[in-house]
Amino acid sequence: MAVVRSSCGSSARLTAPTCVLLLLLFAFVSVASASRDDAPGGNNETGRAPPEDSHHHHQQTNSSTHHKKAFPVLSFNYEHVRQPFEISLWILLALLMKLGFHIIPRVSNVVPESCLLIVVGLLIGGIIKAIGEKAPMLDSKLFFLYLLPPIILDAGYFLPIRPFTENMGTILVFAVVGTLWNTFFVGGMMYAVCQIEGAQLGGVDLLSCLLFGSIISAVDPVAVLAVFEEIHINELLHILVFGESLLNDAVTVVLYHLFEEFSHADTVTVGDALLGVVCFFVVSLGGIMVGAIYGLLGAFTSRFTSHTRVIEPLFVFLYSYMAYLSAEVFHLSGIMSLIACGVMMRPYVEANISHKSYTTVKYFMKMWSSVSETLIFIFLGVSTVAGPHAWNWTFVIFTVILCLVSRVLGVIGLTYVINKFRIVKLTKKDQFIVAYGGLRGAIAFSLGFLLTNSQLKNMFLTAIITVIFFTVFVQGMTIRPLVELLAVKKKKESKRSINEEIHTQFLDHLLTGIEDICGHYGHHHWKDKLNRFNKAYVKRWLIAGERSTEPQLISFYNKMEMKQAMMLVESGSAAKLPAIVSSMQNIQPRGPARPRAIPSISKSREQEIRKILRANLQKTRQRLRSYSRHDLLIDPFEDGLSEVRFRRQRVEMERRMSHYLTVPANRQEIPSVRKVCFEPEHQVYTYDTDGESLRGRRASHSHPSASDAAGLVNESTRRPDQSGAAEPRAKVPDDQEDQDQLTLSRCLSDPGPNKDEEGGGSFLS
Amino acid sequence: MGALQSLHGRPEYLDLAEKTGFSFEQIRVLHERFKQLSHNEETLRRSHFNEIPDLACNPIRAQIIEAFFDRRNYHQNGEGTVEEIGFEEFLVVMSHFRPPSLHMTEEQRENVRREKLRFVFNMHDTDNDGTITLEEYRHVVEELLSRSGALEKETAKSIADAAMLEVASISMGHMEPDEFYEGITFEHFLKLLDGFEIESRMNIRFLNMDTSTLCK
């Protein structure tokens, strides 16, 4: 491990040999743990115990008593911790592998991580098998109960709701009709293939083929996530493929159970088929309902957690996991339940929990889903080597071909129908990406593993693994260059700006209004009604305190303003300020020319303040917002956010109180001096709209900020006696903060070191 | 063709269809709605719009209604407002919300984008001077937040100010302390909402079947 540490420290010069070393280490330990599985339980204790112990032990059992047993200073008892030890070891080494990949930049650009992990799994499996031990298989119970839920929860909780609901119809059509088409096409054609003489496949009946079809036809969310997250495709396509992979779980569950039941029964009647259809509705709607109930419970619980902030994240995880398990109890669709729970819970929980808890929830989810994904792919590789295989050329080749063909046909056919109903049609490029992105993954493998018919099971498993490998390797590796080649629109890189938020809301209301004028109840009308219902009733129950009435625009704005204030402070250079501050002045109507004042902030003071600010805020890097596990948005201000807000409100109140002072225009020292007490805490947290009033306060003590009082005056109408003073400043901006900024611009733009000028851009980006 | 039969001897539909791009069926449905709103009169007035109950809870109701009476939206480079509109103007305003068709060149798509953004711009620029000043933008934000109950005017102001700053920085880059940003011109507005994809978002579905009897 020392090798790893040193090479990590020497920035990314980890070469191939070290990686091989890691690999060997991994293999060695897993072999060791595998071999320990086979060792009979008793060996360890007696075999490893130091001789004195056993000697004394013998002595004691021989009951020649008078010797006092020497106190065992060091003893060895591996059985005691075997299971958790092995689990931790697997996880640890899997993560070290992942670490290794990211240190080698060339490989991770070309090959998606999922492929590399499968290859590692293959190697491990190969090594274990070569030594002659039995390798662990991807147990279905392990997969469905422990490995899959974190990934789905992560996906569901951070699901982008707006594009999802806007494209819901398309997604449902692809998920339900597309999967059904795939199942029957592949199943039927495979049956036809099995009838071919000479393929030795005569023993495969129609129902088995259909069962196989139902397993292999579902697009897998894990694989899709793993591949799509690295190519940063535009939001529409991402949500289409990803949404489809999530929602087709209901179809898969129903079809799988249906065909499995049928294959044990003798005859299949139409009644059974109808029951199947009913079952589909029950499974999907039931799953959603279970999830929604748990989601609401979770939201309601989070309303009361203001005194026990530490356990807040746990509620989110536990309610979601319970939703999944409860759905699995009734054979409902666990995935849909989990998604519904996450979606339902999120807006209310996020309004209730503290920002630290929010960060915790986000990071833990990403962490668990990352670990799960890594383990799944490695186990997939290991199981490939370990499992019993029955290779049949015809079957496998035809499966792969038919999967591709059916996917392409399905997408084209469905898009033709869907485009008649969509406002924004899907182009040929979109269709291609949707078809090409239909990856199969570990769910298919686990479902195949659950099959009971052993003679066909091996053949099916082999075919399933081949399809998975094909889709993940071939399609996964080539989709990135294809996206570049076809110039498919990529995800928008910029962050959400306040203007876009304003216009999003504006557009919502506008379209709702136009729909009302047109007289038909469309998409926007219902969304608007839902929002109003949400605001009037649901939020009141589920959100604590006054946040329940906070409109979305304001909460967005608050978040943004904090972000900018923190960013500004973090960048730490006063030189950026003049650009920003002056632009504030630029948008206000021009006022009468004011006397310029001499700045007198001493350098040492500035340094002191900067040091204090840096010490109080953590330094983090801003990254691109994405739903990927690979790059998380590291918010620089998450730590201090709630504190900042609290302080801000307090300062706000103090300022309001200071408004009551009627200070004539020419005697400014009193309020300004009062404000500029050099208490570090105050200084750190007195952020205003654009953050500059911090500096404004710092600066304004040295000279009369002539317009302070006047600014206050314009705000309130209750001091008519000052209106005289207000006259010449009629065009002066009303806000207090603006005054500070103006004074600051005057004092800082004069001599000060105006080093860099791009402050405006970065401030407002 | 079925469309010819549904014309019912209304040759003016042809003209309107050409002008606005709606299909005959859609025009017919909208005409029915127009007659319903105007109580079978020839023209619509603002009072007619105020009678639509669903519109009452819309925070930007006034602006939407104004947009119908704004000459700038009639594609004729007109200015000012009118007091009442006929079916043609109604249809022309509605045509701003048609989705772009599938087979459009980049240039046509760009034109559609400009047109829609022009509509929104006109809604913001209430005094017709070609720029959105700070006051007008503040008014927009205040209206948007007006339904949220106890709102501090200050917050709306701050939001509008921040938004304005952003526009200024995007459009003009760095400005000298003495420079003054007059207001958002149409070009700046275009640049601001560059990534907004308004051509895919500012659309509603126009029906070919008459469902106006089902709703108020």
From TrEMBL, chain B:
Cellular location(s): Cell projection, Lamellipodium; Cell projection, Ruffle membrane; Cytoplasm; Membrane
An annotated Gene Ontology molecular function: protein kinase inhibitor activity
Gene: tescb
Keyword Cytoplasm: yes
Protein keywords: Calcium, Cell membrane, Cell projection, Cytoplasm, Differentiation, Lipoprotein, Membrane, Metal-binding, Myristate, Nucleus, Protein kinase inhibitor
Record domain EF-hand: where: 112-147
Topological category with respect to the lipid bilayer: Lipid-anchor
Entry protein name: Calcineurin B homologous protein 3
Cytoplasm listed as a keyword: yes
PANTHER family, per database record: CALCINEURIN B HOMOLOGOUS PROTEIN 3
A single GO cellular-component term on record: lamellipodium
Biological processes, Gene Ontology terms: cell differentiation
Main location: other
Annotated family: Belongs to the calcineurin regulatory subunit family. CHP subfamily.
InterPro entries hit by this protein: CHP3, EF-hand-dom_pair, EF_Hand_1_Ca_BS, EF_hand_dom
Taxonomic lineage of the native organism: Eukaryota, Metazoa, Chordata, Craniata, Vertebrata
